[in-house]
Structure prediction request, 251 residues.
Amino acid sequence: MSVTNLRPNMDFWPERVDLAAAFRWTARLNMHEGVANHFSLSINDDGTKFLMNPNQKHFARIKASDLLVVDANDPDTLTGPDAPDPTAWGLHGGLHRHCPQARCAMHVHSIHATVLACLEDPTLPPIDQNGATFYNRIAYDRDYGGLAFEEEGIRCAQLFTDPKQKVLVMGNHGVMIIGDTVAETFNRLYYFERAAETYIRALQTGQPLKVLSHEIAEKTAQEIEDYPEQDERHLAELKSILDDEGSDYAT
Prediction:
């Protein structure tokens, strides 16, 4: 029997399992940062209560039952067992208070997205299909203000002003990806890192870049947005692989 069929007596179990699988696969792709970085998923209507990874636990070990319930409007959250660290509270708390469209949020310092964030011009041109997916759909932070304590977290959250923009390239820092579900957000995180890698590697050749036209890039972005169920199938396949390996992520 698949471990995803196990149902401990905890609320939001399917969501916990999806989020735990995303943590495990992010570590497998080496897109994590030691025992730092954070994912969150809203569980109430206004988005201010959310699941989050416990402080300083490696992505490769996170289980569905490990995930904390955090209230963005209750600072006492920081005093509980395994409470999220203050930067997790600042960044994700600020995001879930100020951006109701951010039901799920994934923040990492993945290598290629972070390299992009460190360039004088961090914009991602549409040089391939993956890059075109994000055409006109990225917000850029050019004013890094230090660790993401509460004030910095609110500043970053306020950069999500355009509903089409579900990626924030965090200047000199990393990337924040938002979405409606774990599957959607993880899929976006995966493909953004791939797009950033292609761009960085293309720059390394020193050759001129062949950039897609506005019309083709926008057409491609819209086609990807309308492509059925890719995100759900992607996460389902990853969970199946973990299940086949006997992973304990869904416990």
